[in-house]
Design goal:
By secondary structure, the protein is α+β, with helices and mostly antiparallel strands. It has 9 helices and 4 strands, in the order ααααββαααββαα. Residues 1-27 have low confidence and may be disordered.
């Protein structure tokens, strides 16, 4: 029995080895890489639809700002019929086209705002993709955590089954009482029940992964060496990039509003024709320029809204920067604490396993009662299960640190 217990003892280095991605056998499909998994989730997400809509909106705005006219031309048609002396009448027809003109600098400001909108849409898509990548990563680690639970439950069930068989053999030989066999069988059944629950939880985690990505398998589990150290230089975080792009867009829109202090002036081209019975037709052409006045009633609401948008974007950019700094500091501390806790759990598991082996030897020799051996074995198994969980938790903390840095998995 002591040899059976020793076969399951392992150290912290063994826990760092990656678990199988999906615990599948036979003709299972090859594991996708992280980029493929994120892209698969992105193609199924609402964020992708929103990003496409923002890009189309920016393209439409750029197209409108690139137009030769400030707005759509308008057609004017006027016809007037006049009654003259009895038996005669006249008809006047006037056809015109109104062409809205850009104000000085307005078209360039609108184009700059459209370019800023396109940049903001691209930055928003990158930020949404990073956040979705974090959700994909969390779903994968949830599966790996449940795989660790299944492994621990399987080891526990095997341990208690071996112990139950050994106790049953000794009861038949007359070395132990029937009560010991009942206690050992009860622990064996509890181990089987724990294994069943762990498998169900694993299936649920795998189902959530598939619902998010549409994939049946997981990417390879990243090794701790793949995660940048805490002192690695920061990259431009997509969320910060998005906030900066939105601030630039708000400023460009404010510039466009300041250069659009009146409605677009209109150049009107007209053709006039007059027909009167018994008299020659009268034809003519004309040109008119319509210039709307700038008024506070029109400009103040637009300018105030643009200023408020710029101020809000600036405050949001500052808040995002502060939140990202806080998240990074917290992620660094969590990763360090998780590594230290893993070392502690590994040492605790080693000590309790060594104690369980010694008590098992004493029980085999008839020097210790079964309840004491059961308690020692349970404590050792629980410590090893905690070590497996902490190994996954430490790796997850490292992955979250990578996410806090703005890096894709």
């Amino acid at each position: 029995m002591a040899g059976h217990l020793l076969r399951h003892a392992f150290g912290v280095l063994g826990l760092a080895v990656a678990l199988p991605a999906a615990a599948q056998t036979g003709g299972a499909p090859a594991s996708p890489d992280w980029r493929s998994a994120v892209e698969a989730a992105w193609s199924r997400s609402v964020q992708a639809v929103d990003a496409a809509g923002q890009r189309r909106s920016a393209q439409a705005e750029h197209s409108a700002a690139s137009s030769f006219w400030a707005a759509s031309p308008a057609l004017e048609l006027e016809q007037l019929r006049k009654r003259q002396q009895p038996g005669g009448s006249s008809r006047e027809t006037e056809l015109g086209i109104a062409l809205p003109l850009w104000l000085p600098g307005q078209r360039g400001a609108r184009l700059a705002a459209a370019d800023a909108q396109a940049a903001a849409a691209s930055a928003a898509a990158d930020a949404a993709r990073l956040q979705l990548a974090g959700a994909v990563q969390e779903a994968a680690w949830a599966v790996w955590m449940q795989q660790a639970e299944v492994e621990s439950a399987a080891i526990q069930a095997d341990e208690f089954e071996a112990l139950a068989h050994d106790v049953a053999r000794r009861v038949r030989a007359g070395d132990l009482a029937r009560t010991d066999a009942l206690a050992a069988d009860a622990e064996r059944l509890a181990g089987e029940d724990a294994r069943s629950r762990a498998r169900l939880a694993l299936q649920a985690a795998e189902a959530r992964w598939t619902a998010l990505t549409g994939l049946a398998t997981l990417p390879p589990r990243p090794a701790p060496a793949d995660v940048p150290p805490a002192t690695a230089p920061l990259v431009a975080h997509p969320l910060l990039h998005e906030a900066g792009a939105r601030l630039e867009l708000a400023r460009k829109r404010l510039d466009a509003v300041r250069l659009s202090r009146r409605d677009a002036p209109e150049l009107v081209l007209r053709a006039h024709q007059e027909r009167a019975g018994g008299e020659p037709d009268v034809n003519g052409v004309g040109v008119a320029l319509r210039i709307p006045f700038a008024s506070a009633e029109r400009n103040e609401p637009l300018l105030s809204a643009a200023l408020a948008e710029a101020e809000l974007a600036e405050a949001s950019e500052t808040e995002v920067r502060r939140q990202l700094d806080l998240a990074l500091t917290s992620a660094v501390q969590d990763e360090r604490a998780a590594r230290q806790q893993l070392a502690n759990e590994a040492e605790r598991a080693r000590l309790l396993r060594e104690r369980a082996v010694l008590i098992q030897k004493s029980f085999d020799a008839g020097q210790s009662p079964l309840p004491e051996a059961l308690r020692a074995l349970t404590q050792a198994l629980q410590a090893e299960a905690a070590m497996r969980r902490q190994a996954v938790a430490a790796a997850l903390a490292a992955a979250r640190l990578q996410q806090a840095r703005g890096l894709m998995p």
